[in-house]
């Protein structure tokens, strides 16, 4: 039996191996396709990216044809390099450099030699393509922007880098991928699915037809279209209002969390990042470290919220029952909170909740905050309770929008102050600046717009999002999930009345629009810059938050204008115009419109540039003088 068993095992194993080899080589030909067989050429069919529309069906982003010259280094044979270079307008050095780069990627696989030829360049090359073995053209689709605004929303597409190729098997050298904005966030939806064709070549490397009659070919699938929540006309108007200014505008529909406008200024024409000049244009935008046109201020810029934060201070005071509507505090143009410590205020007399809001009384809200923090047995417990209330409005945390970027902001808690005061000794008056949004609190424009949406809804909000609909698909459920704040619904009515009175008789009364009840709050935030170890005081930031109409609100908005002095000078008029534009579709306050469209803060920004330039020059001169002194001393020693 043993004599039979061993030969039987050997025979059985051999039969299994032979069967497997027969299957792989004769029946299953997929491995042939996976191998780099010289007789088979793999050609990709790139689909069109999905189109992008605004909420009203306006086409924002389409596609245009483009052509890449591809190269397979090992297939290059005796070409006329000079003719090739002259045809494409490149130098021989550039030719050699690109070939070497292609070889590093793979001598056997195709990679992009020269990207994004236009139709004229493509036609000229196609006529002589047969003379340049190893080179061929690959058709792709580039973005065709129908508008010259919204670049921060769209993002752009560019060639994949080595890391993206290594981490995602879908991409090959030369493929395009979404960078920034919705192009990045919704890349897998927009890009579609590549098709593949396998072509058979003869011994002269000429294509003689499809491999196996196209048995293994696949058809490309176009990317899905996106409908954005953005109102294109409102986005355009906001962009125009922010010309020659720096800052951000974020407008949200309170009932849904849909982002109506997301303006960042300064901005750029999205068409700059399409075509052969894309790289040069991107480099220029990237290295503008002062204006920062690639920096989305609406999502990333973190500012002290200033007086708009008083809205939350008041609501928390009501929720914690340390005040009611009739609680009053006497203001003598400020609030003393310690020996020699005085918080200035432009108001005077007795302030209650209503006039405290519309007159923006620092004294009133400092007292409310002090009472809130002093309510519990120790300030650590109080600050943590206060912090949780604030965070329930979406402040001090990533909101979870469907944009690939965002900043957290800052809402301090007890740990913040335990680090700052390791030996203790801090109390409500130590951190009193939080009451008016000038302490450690930092917010982004989108967070403040979301906060106003929560106030407009009397206690809840939906996560802000920028995609309304995906063709053939649905948006994430998290964008239709209600988030309820920790303040009782009943406390919002008196605060909203105060916000309405900001326009009726308060700090924004000069911005009032006939027969349109807007609820708003002016704000001013301190602004400093630190250059080479020295701090400079600059003009304050202008801030304004609002929603309208007061009943059944359709829009909530936050506007930040850097170096804009005070709230109703720049941010207030811009917010008012944006609200009227969206609700009425026309502007009645032509005086505000003319002033905002023609106004400029470039002189203020020039001061910042001068400070940076002069300070850096001074530092460099000091360094040179120091080095010269050292050299002289060395010469004396020698």
From the spread of the alpha carbons, the general shape counts as: elongated
Name the structural class: alpha+beta
Helix content: 25-40%
Cα radius of gyration in angstroms: 32 Å
What assembly state would you assign to the polypeptide chains in this entry? single chain
**Total number of β-strand segments?**
22
Tally of alpha and pi helices: 22
The main β sheet shows up as:
6 strands, mixed
Gap between N and C termini: 100 Å
Low-confidence runs = 627-638
Strand residue percentage: 15-25%
Mean pLDDT: 88
Pfam families: PBP_dimer, Transpeptidase
InterPro entries: Beta-lactam/transpept, Beta-lactam/transpept-like, PBP_dimer, PBP_dimer_sf, PCN-bd_Tpept, Penicillin-binding_protein_2
Subcellular location: Cell membrane; Membrane
Keywords: Carboxypeptidase, Cell inner membrane, Cell membrane, Cell shape, Cell wall biogenesis/degradation, Hydrolase, Membrane, Peptidoglycan synthesis, Protease, Transmembrane, Transmembrane helix
Name a few traits of the molecule.
638 residues; alpha+beta; 22 helices; disordered C terminus
Describe the structure.
Helix content is 37%, strand content 21%. The protein has 638 residues and is of the alpha+beta class. A hairpin with a 5-residue loop joins β2 and β3. α10 runs antiparallel to α20, α13 packs across α15 and α16 packs across α17. It is elongated, with a radius of gyration of 32 Å. It starts with a helix and ends with a helix. Pfam families: PBP_dimer, Transpeptidase. This is Penicillin-binding protein 2. Its main location: membrane.
